Predict the structure.
Amino acid sequence: MLNNTYPQYISIRFIILFLHLVAPLSTVYTLLLLRRSFFANLFTGPIFTTLLQKWCLAETLFFVTFLWYRGYLQHDAIHPPLRSKEERKALFEKVRSEIHDPARFLKGWFRGAEVESIGREDLKEFMSWAFWEGRDEASDEEELEELTAHVEKMVGKGKFKEGRGTAKSLRLTLDPIDMQWRSLVWYAVIVLVDTVVHIRLLIYGFSYTATKASSLRIFPPRPLAAVAVGKKSPVEDLSYWRKAHTSKTRMPVVFIHGIGVGLHPYVEWFHELDRSLNAGRPKDNQVGILAIEILQISTRLTEKPVLSRSDFLTQITKILDHEHGYQRFVLVSHSYGSVFSTHMLTDDTMSKRVAGTLLVDPVTMLLHMPDVAYNFTMRKPTTASEWQLWYFASKDPTVAYTLGRHFFWSENILWRDHIADLSERGNRITVSLAGRDLIVDTEAVGAYLMEKKVPDPVVVKTKGGKKKMELEVEGKEKKDVEWKKKAWKGEGVEVLWWDDLDHAQVFDDKRNRGKLVEVTRCFYDNIGHLDFAMALISAPSVNSRFAQLCIASILLLGFFWYIVPPLEAVKELRIPGLHSSQPKTALPSTPPTSSDTKPLPPKPHHPIDHLVARAEEEYAALLAQETTTVEDAARAYRERRGRHPPPHFDLWFTFARNQSALMIEPFFDQIYTDLAPFWGVPAKQTREQANAFVHRISVRNGNVTQRTDIDERVWMGLWQEMVQSIAEWLPDLDMPINVMDESRVVVPWEEVDGYMSKEQASRGLVDEKLLVDTYGSRGVLRELDLAKLGEYKPEFQGMGPYWPLAVVGCPPDSAARKAYIETDFTTPPKLTGGHPEGSYHGYVKNWTLATSPCDNAHLQGIHGTFVEPISIATSKTFFPLFGGSKLPMNNEILLPPAMYWTEDPFYSGGSSHGSTWEMKKPGLIWRGAASGGRNKEENWRRFQRHRFVSMVNSTSVREAETTGAGPPNFVLPAYNPYDLASTPSDNMGGTFADWVGTWSDAAVVHLLCFPDPNPPYCSYTDPYFKVAKSIPMAEQYSYKYLPDIDGNSFSGRYRAFLFSTSVPIKATIYREWHDSRLVPWKHFVPMHNEFSDVYGIMEYFFGNAKEGLGGHDAVGRGIAEGGKAWAEKVLRKEDMMVYVLRLLLEYARVCDDDRDVMGWRGGQGVG
């Protein structure tokens, strides 16, 4: 941007006037020339003989074409998908929470008009645009009226007059587009500048990657781009410049420019950044720079409009996947480029690939305020910089079209809480703001980010007949605020403040550009050991020659230690392909000690140390809630549940004590999660549905029977045995049973929420005199049996995919409900290898969050349940259905799984639970079928068991590591987010695969392909997997670590693993009855469903002897032995009986017409 000096003002006005008049004057000159010379030259020669005359003719023809083009661009916008009513309501509430003065807010959006001049119809029209994008045919009149009434209430009743007023609102994507024509002279300048930029970038070592689209679709043409020889972009609409990325330890930079002449303002910054990152480094350790071109905002006429959010995300993903080393990157954008950065940062999958973010002059914060819209489209220029913005940016034809038909505020806005969430996930974010920015209210943005202040709305005032934006922040002076003075540290969310700069001026000065280079450099998570050492040598605190000599000697010795392999480290040769990898025995996790050998030291202050310590605290808090008397148990019940315990609670307690069960009230939380919604429907409805369901277990007078559609359903028989073991204490009841592996009931969240509200309202401690302490089910169910109701057949949907059916059970504001639905599973999974969302340095911190599809929308593309399950029979109808597992959004009532009741060694492992810890093999083992759903040639890469086996198979890792080829179904940790001692990026020699081979033995026993002509093999996965023999579970117990991965639903081996003397490593999306009894990192090791943390987990426990790193073997032993001891206290068959008895007493109450007054009288007033 220009400085607002008088000479610059005169210069810019003259240039604009000249460019503005070229076309009209050329047209007038051409018409005069035609009139005077047409007849005279009709037979004697051409009319246009001089270069000037020919140029004027060209300008005239272009001008006439432009007049048509200007009208063409006025067509209606193509809006993003319409929000649901719930999403609109949530957006409205969000906007309402982020404004301070509603009256001034509306005044800004109505171009400075007083509220009294705004008619109610004007307000509705504005609201229709704000929340329906002006799609009148889609607007719900009743809903629109409701939102309008809310605004009236906020501003004050009676402020708006009926009908229409004199005020006119800003409606960016509906208002007529105001643009100024351009002459061929101007576009000739653009060609010259573009050519110079092209040559300069080539000189600086960048290469150009052209689009697949024809260059003829762009005007003015780009001569050098059209003839460029080299790589072609993998997408049709995005070209880019690239500096090759070769580093294996540092992340590349992705840059997206703002409105202007393409990359012209940034060329020197690219060069300075490149020199800062790569000068003096070898060719195989160069940080790449990827500069994306958005031609629609680059002062050009384009055939296609700017990409929509979804199309941009699709194409940028393809580019990043196409370019080597871009699984994780630092994101930098300028001005309008922040729109595309926002798309990336608000996408669940893409945001995980962004390690650090630098937003320079961003325009996407506080977009619900009118200042950006006003300044881009309505601001009347008075200063040099305003005239520059007006003519060369906002009134450029394609830019104006982009702003006027493709700038959707609600899709482009970046809210503060989303920024905070990104920061919590490890994305360091710096926002560079210019104090004199004429587009963005940077004072408000800075206070919004750093002080969490809700900004005042923009006020439009009139000064000298010109409309001008006056921007203020509530309660703060514009200049002297603390956050502007705060030194930049490169931590969390920070603001880089430039007090005397205008929009985009930060790139004009080398010193300012240097600060942006410094910020970008500091975003790199991993600094090589040699870099750190060299920095230490040059530090002032280490300035003696002796100290420098010592450090140099250590580095030299370390270098020889690193390059000279140990004698026993013989490379293992394998043919390409994924075959079972047996662990090497030469390198145990902790070498045996002797008088001459000391154990290798483990890595200190590891994140897992913190998680283990926190688990101990959580476990202690759980134990502190144990009750030992029925009175204490009843009191704990009433405090936690808000109502009296069910009838027969004393009998249940006595039964539990006789079974030596631990009585801790939180152990039974799952029961109340499952049954709570049934308090919201009539008991009669629940009884009749249960009685008439085809698969049913019934209790009548202490006898248990089953009914199903075929003679032999194994799980039904086992569950019948389970219920029979406690039947003498049960009232009569009917239990509908889910006989499928997959969950079957998922009711829309909004409906269940309504039932939950009724359950909350029904709570309360009924007066003891009114309590009913018996069940009335016997007579009622006898009547139902005699009535012989027709079979209850809730509607089940059997057509996939399953994800859209499942996410209706998620909250409206959840990631799953907001995410785009994947339908193409033919490509490798979209994995980053980085830290999963909500993790603690990459490891599971919140088990509930980590296993929730509602909070992890990317699971739809990496778990067979959602890719293509074996079968789908899902109902949205709310009715009682018991099952052994479910997804968090399902509505089944959980029982202990039937296979946990069996003594079959296939599930239980038999009587042996493994040898002592010292006698075990120091590694992990996994054997199982490649289940998880219906894997086919086009989708097998997305299945979880295939992915896990590939990731811990040394052959597959070696092939990816040594060839550089992307693995078909996983990603290697190329940028080392888990700070591993050895990574695939250390060299191309396969050392990472060697390390994996020392501890992993994983293979499939059946590939289960579809169709399945040659079991257990599979034509399309045979090149990647070797089918191995199954290993009995009792033999698997001879290994220290036992991963447990979901199959078609939950894994039936989990309980047996917990009873073993080994460490279960659990990854799942399914809920089971015992979840509230187990503490992650105390009783088992939790693992993310991406499995990105498996390498970090195994290095923590196993170590890396070749790199001189010991493991935390004692911690592993503690989890194994502690988990086994705990399972023997809380996961026995007796504990299942106690749980099911409590569950069915509660279920029988919820099915009883007197349920609101039913309960156990005892235990009140004690304590």
Notes: The chain has 43 helices and 22 strands. Residues 219 and 437 are 30 Å apart (CA to CA). Confidence is low (pLDDT under 50) at residues 459-477, 525-596. The longest helix spans residues 6-37.
